[in-house]
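Sample pair:
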Amino acid sequence: MRNVDIPSRHPVLLALATILLLQGTALADIQVGGNTSGSFFDGSINVGSTATPSWSAGLTFTSNPFGVQSSAMTLNLGTFSLYDLGTGNQNFDAYTFKLAVNFTTPIGTPATVIGSDVKGKVTGRSGKGNNTVEVDFNGLTHFTYSNLQGSGSFDLAVNSIQSIPVNAGSQALTGNIINASYNTGSISTSISNPEPPSIALLGTLMIGLGVFMRKRLST
């Protein structure tokens, strides 16, 4: 039986290996970490971390550091707490909420902070027997980074809160990293799941490679 010199005699196999690598079939991961701050706005007026439509009710945001952790894990971005003395319905419809998210990791120059503001809207009323206050976030916020190890990008999806309990502790504000990618040198890796066409292409290539190798070894 002859030895098969794959690297020198079959450049097509090298091309196949390159395609498999660039397809990114193995899930990638990046490390993320940072902190948040948040403010309520009554129209254009910044009223700070607590919205108070009257003396008897208020909605407070408490910031929270997160990470360093895998980008596949849910981020804890802070908490909301709602109090009401039961004197009647309190209208939060006039308020908006602005969340500042600062990522200090992916690791780069320590002084470098990448961040963006995510806006949500506080709607509903919190009163005796009425609990409809919510904070809605729409869309994704895109981040890019570059450091000595490489560069990349990711999107942050902040999860809306549908109902904040009254006088019952706090409600966590969470977020998720999606579409994360990084580039080290000339190879780019993505955390996104492989697309179906990519999976089909890989399957076809693997079958072809198996048939090719079997014919070579049988000669």
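The longest helix spans residues 196-218.
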